Amino acid sequence: MNRIAGRLLVASPYLTEESFFRTVLYMVRHDAEGAFGLILNRRTEHTLEEIFADRLGHVPKRTDTIHFGGPVEGPLMALHTLPGLGEPCGPDVLQLSPESISDEVAGSSPVWITADDDHLTMLVNRVDLEVRFLSRYSGWGPSQLDRELNQGGWLVGPPDWRTIFADADGMWENVIKRLGRDILGGIISTPLADDPQWN
Questions:
Q1: What whole-number distance in Å separates Cα of residue 108 and Cα of residue 84?
Q2: Alpha-carbon dihedral sign for residues 48, 49, 54, 58
Q3: pLDDT at 186 exceeding the cut of 70
Q4: This prediction's pTM
Q5: Which of 22, 23, 168, 184 is most buried (most C-beta within 10 Å)?
């Protein structure tokens, strides 16, 4: 089975499980031990101000809503674009073994992940960065996600870091539409016209 770490995992239109219905996930890890991803397009009712105002002693500069990363209990995390803060999790990095990740390769990864309190405290005041704050996560045991992929429950999208930080509203529809066009484009040699009836 091809590993999909660093790529988007998109619920197929036929996946009706409530936890993942019409979700788009960023896959942080996928290997023989299992898989770990974060849902990108589900907001919670909680904001950074609720969590960080008392801790900081002032209202944080960012006003983000915290997103729901999945059904598994876990810490508050951030996917972000500040090189060197936390762990790199872009597709270029994830194709390599940890021992072979050079500073140059790690520095080129556009996506980083952290759950460190000091890192999160710094990120809530950085309005110049792309950041998505998430609570909880999505996890699969060994081969579990592979089976679900084989059964057609999921589609795999490209490692599109811009989607990670895009507006959650309409994200699933936009990614599904783009994937459909890519599939059709691979079958049909003539470029597809932008037909408004297909929207």
A1: 10
A2: positive
A3: no
A4: 0.82
A5: 23
Per-residue pLDDT tens digits for 149-183: 999 999 999 888 889 999 999 999 999 999 877 65
pLDDT band at 122 (very low <50, low <70, confident <90, very high): very high
Residue 32 to residue 146: CA distance in whole angstroms: 10
Concatenated DSSP letters of 51-91 = HHHHHHTS--S--PEEEE--SEEEEEEEEE--TTSSEE-SH
Rounded to a whole number of angstroms, the distance between the first and last alpha carbons of the chain is 33
Q: What is the pLDDT of residue 162?
A: 85
Q: How many CB atoms lie within 10 A of CB 40?
A: 25
- The pLDDT tens digits for 98-114 are 443 334 343 345 799 99
Two structure tokens written together for 125: 């005041």
3-state SS assignment for residue 137: strand
CATH for 8-192 (3.40.50.720, 3.40.1740.10, 3.10.129.10, 3.90.550.10): 3.40.1740.10
For residue 183, the 8-state DSSP code is H
In degrees rounded to 5, what are phi and psi of residue 180?
A: -60, -40
Would you list the domain boundaries of the chain?
Answer: 8-192
Do 71 and 19 meet the contact criterion of CB atoms below 8 Å apart?
yes
Q: How would you label 107-131 residue by residue, b for 16+ Cβ within 10 Å and e otherwise?
A: eebbbbbbeeeebbebbbebeeebb
